[in-house]
Amino acid sequence: MILTRHLLELSAQALYIVGATPPETTQDRARRFLAKLWTGIPEEARDDLLSAECVDAWAKRADEWTLELTPNRRARWPNFREMFEANGMGAAYEEDYRYLSGAAHGSPWLELGNYMHSDNADYRQEPIWVPLLHASRYYIATAWCWNVRFALIEGYIFSESIDELSAVRARYGKHGDFDGGGENRSA
């Protein structure tokens, strides 16, 4: 469930960045995201993760970007509810993100059925393909956002992949997770 939640978070953030208009807003959001990412890495860990040249380059950029940002680090980037709303995905926040966050953090109401059983063998466990199938739509959404910006995959290949995934989801998952045919989704 944690993997699924992280894919949903990546999808929401990617759409929040690349889905913005005008282009200046996209650039501003990308800078704020990267500044948040960089300042979130503990300084002592940076040297372990990156070469000295990379640390210097990132620090220089982050210094430039953070000059334009509020000193309150929490206010530099919206919370997930705000991003979902800005993306027009309020229902996904309520239906998916809250559930996945509860599962990832061990929400008591999700574990109620497990605690009611006396034997460990009776614990409810979903097969691994269930959360992975559920996560596939978030992977596709994230990939679509980056493909719109960087044109990494040709539109028809991307559309064919979505059609194949839709067929699998129609057979094993929820129906109607993706709308329309492939012809409307080319990047």
Characteristics of this structure?
single chain; mainly alpha; 187 residues; 9 helices
Question: Could you characterize the architecture of this molecule?
Answer:
With 187 residues, this protein is mainly alpha-helical. Residues 175-187 have low confidence and may be disordered. It has helices spanning 2-18, 23-39, 43-49, 52-67, 80-86, 90-104, 108-115, 129-150, 155-172. It has 9 helices and no strands. Helix 1 (2-18) crosses helix 5, helix 1 (2-18) packs antiparallel against helix 6 and helix 5 runs antiparallel to helix 6 (90-104). It folds into 2 domains: 1-16 and 97-187, no CATH class; 20-86.
Spans where pLDDT lies below 50 across 5 or more residues: 175-187
Structural class: mainly alpha
> What level of helicity do the residues show?
55-70%
By DSSP (H or I, 4+ residues per run), the number of helices equals: 9
* Biggest beta sheet attributes: none
Q: Please report the total strand number as a whole number.
A: 0
| Integer-rounded radius of gyration | 20 Å
Shape: globular
Whole-Å distance between the termini? 29 Å
Helix and strand pattern: HHHHHHHHH
| Domains (count) | 2
Mean pLDDT over the residues: 76
Residues in β-strands, percent: under 5%
Quick take:
This protein is mainly α and 187 residues long. 68% of the residues lie in helices and 0% in strands. α1 runs parallel beside α8 (129-150) and α2 packs across α4.
